[in-house]
Specification:
Blueprint lengths: L1 E5 L4 H12 L3 E6 L2 H11 L2 E4 L8 E4 L6 H5 L8 E3 L4 E4 L2 E4 L6 H8 L4 E4 L5 H6 L6 E5 L2 H14 L4 E3 L6 H18 L12
Parallel strand pairs: 1-2, 1-4, 2-3, 4-5, 5-8, 9-10
Antiparallel strand pairs: 6-7, 8-9
Length: 201
């Protein structure tokens, strides 16, 4: 699969790139800063480009911070389905809470792009992903069958658990909110937790 990772110079984007290269995928790191993209890409042994120059790919992963998601994709010449992994979280006094009671980041992104959008992998943290394929399940949701299929295929390559279809794009509200729960668990237990679903054959 040919994958562009917008925000590929960040922790999650870099970790995802490492796992995808390990799986044999063709990866391009995207950034607002072309030089930064190329520097990171050189470290990882992939291609780097400015976000609007990533070229022809099968799937675009939006791995930027939540506050930058809409600005990053607005007016980009996207031609492939988009997977957003961003989650809006508010942290005060060391406690994480869901950042918005309204539409998810993924739903808001879907309103400003001309391609189909899936959301997922919110429960996968950058640090364990950078070390190896985590023993966790990954959750993907979306309204378009092809976008969801590509996102599930990508997720399955980078984890040791299962890539699970979590329903329509509206489910991204729950997936993004779960990020706050996991952050609180990490803080309380000084670890990096993940999720596994039981009962699926």
């Amino acid at each position: 699969m040919k994958v562009a990772i917008l925000g590929g110079t960040g922790k999650f984007g870099r970790a995802l790139a490492v796992r995808l290269v390990e799986a044999g995928d063709d990866v391009v790191i995207g950034s607002r800063d072309a030089e930064r993209a190329r520097a990171t890409a050189d470290e990882l042994g992939v291609r780097g480009a400015r976000n609007d120059e990533v070229g022809d790919v099968d799937l675009v992963v939006l791995a930027v911070e939540a506050h930058a998601a809409l600005a990053t994709v607005r007016d980009l010449p996207l031609a492939a389905p988009l997977l957003t992994v961003a989650a809006e979280v508010a942290v005060a006094d060391g406690i994480a809470r869901p950042g918005s009671a309204g539409p998810s980041i993924a739903e808001r992104v879907a309103e400003v792009v001309d391609v189909e959008v899936a959301a997922g992998m919110h429960s996968i943290a950058a640090r364990p992903l950078a070390k190896s394929r985590p023993e966790q399940d990954a959750f993907v949701c979306g309204d378009d069958g092809e976008a969801k299929r590509l996102a599930l295929e990508l997720a399955a390559k980078v984890i040791r658990g299962r890539a699970v279809d979590a329903g329509p794009l509206a489910s991204a509200r729950a997936l993004e909110a779960m990020t706050a729960v996991l952050l609180n668990l990490n803080r309380a237990y000084k670890t990096h937790v993940g999720l596994r679903i039981t009962g699926i054959p």
